[in-house]
Amino acid sequence: MLWPMQVMLSSALHAQLLAQAQAALPKECCGLLLGSGSTIDRITPAPNVSDTPERAFEIDPATLIAAERAMRRGGDNIIGYYHSHPNGRAEPSPHDAAAAACDGRLWLVIAHSQITAWRTIRGGALLDVFDPVSLRLAD
After folding, report:
1. Which of 24, 55, 105, 129 is most exposed by smallest CB count within 10 Å?
2. What is the DSSP secondary-structure string of 42-55?
3. pLDDT digit string, tens, across residues 50-100
4. For residues 53 and 28, is the Cβ–Cβ distance under 8 A?
């Protein structure tokens, strides 16, 4: 899926993502973005099962598999993923780029009080994997 240059996120979900990142400190939080078109409707927090959760994330496979199965049965579409960078910048890291599938899905990166949006694509502007996407807050 090719993302438009702008993705919608409600103010409530924005606040929830910031709170989740804060609560996970000093570890990275992570989860799934559910929605349709260019709108993030819901998030599904997931356990971070990385061996080094203070500097990397890995979404719990059981959470991901359950969401994929639900989507195939007509449930919410998985449009992307999110995670936090507790001691970093609000953009994907080289580690993120190495782990990303260039499948066109959306990635949100949370750092401090900032959230940025990215689309995974081969030849992306950042680290040859990520293109920036504008994140628009809605009420």
Report:
1. 55
2. EEEEE-B--SSTTT
3. 999 999 999 999 999 999 999 999 999 999 999 999 988 999 999 999 999
4. yes
> pLDDT per residue over 6-58, tens digit each?
899 999 999 999 999 999 999 999 999 999 888 999 999 999 999 999 999 99
Strand 106-111 relative to strand 114-124: parallel, antiparallel, unpaired? antiparallel
Q: Which two tokens stand for residue 6?
A: 């702008």
| Domain of residue 121, residue span | 6-138
- We report the CATH number of the domain holding residue 16 as 3.40.140.10
Residue 1 lies in a domain: no
Is 22 inside any structural domain? yes
Q: Are the CB atoms for 133 and 106 separated by under 8 Å?
A: yes
Instruction: Flag whether 83 is in a domain.
Output: yes
State the total domains in the chain.
Answer: 1
